[in-house]
Amino acid sequence: MLQKDHISYLAEDRVKKLANPLAKLGDIHYFCYGVNYPDTTGFTLHTNSDYYETWFENQFPLVGFHLDSGWHLWESSLPKKQLEIAESFNFGKGVNFVQHKDGKTEIFAFGSRPGNSKAIDFYLNNQNLLKRFTTYFIENAKELIDIADQQRIRPLPGMVKKPAKNDDGYNPVLDNPVVENFLHDLSYPFNVLSERECECYRLILKGYSIAQMSEELHLAVPTVAVYISRIKQKLKCTNKSELINLAQEARLVEYYL
């Protein structure tokens, strides 16, 4: 059980305030941000910590351990009892956005009211807006996230469910050359850039200056300038505006908060 002085409780009002624009934009009244680590420890910041506590009471599987990266509807990925409990708190029609990264997994959950028939339409039409919100939340809740990271919780064994895989690790869909080439083409323009160039390009799209990029990436300003020059050359762009327009055309940038 969580102690009432745990950051998941103490930060609840602050998380609600940060998520308040989502309620006005899309009738989203539930939000949480969670992180899972390979040692199974993690933390979650909630707009409803009482609901979070029911996860432990019922040993619901934590989605970050068994779901692939991407969007997942609650109705197809959460236990029936968990859905019923969520509705008892007056939220449902939710989605989870999972991001597996090196060394950790991030989970963002969004929930509307159970009777909101337009909730799924909102998620489908505003995925970029919600992704942008995840960045906004992490930037504005950094202090809370740092505290939560120091107060990690180790879930009960039954809450750590491993993803189902073939014994040999072979995936007949993803290992198909046609599918592999298709997914590679869809990742344009990032598929033609190096890892460092991708990092620089993402920061350009966030509006960073060269000096800010230098500080963020711990690189010298001339080195960042070289990366930017390479990005422009590879993407056949002459200035920052053309780089941003290219990202918009590729639907990498669509909404701003």
Explain how this protein is built.
There is one protein chain. This protein has helices at 7-10, 12-26, 49-58, 63-66, 74-77, 80-88, 119-125, 127-140, 142-150, 177-186, 195-205, 210-217, 221-235, 240-249; strands at residues 30-36, 42-46, 70-73, 92-101, 104-112. The protein contains 14 helices and five strands. It has 257 residues and is α+β, with helices and mostly antiparallel strands. Strands 2-1-5-4-3 form a five-stranded antiparallel β-sheet, sandwiched between helices. The mean pLDDT is 88. It has two domains: 7-159, Transcription factor LuxR-like, autoinducer-binding domain (Beta-Lactamase), CATH 3.30.450; 185-249, Winged helix-like DNA-binding domain superfamily/Winged helix DNA-binding domain (Arc Repressor Mutant, subunit A), CATH 1.10.10. Helix 11 crosses helix 13 and helix 12 (210-217) crosses helix 13.
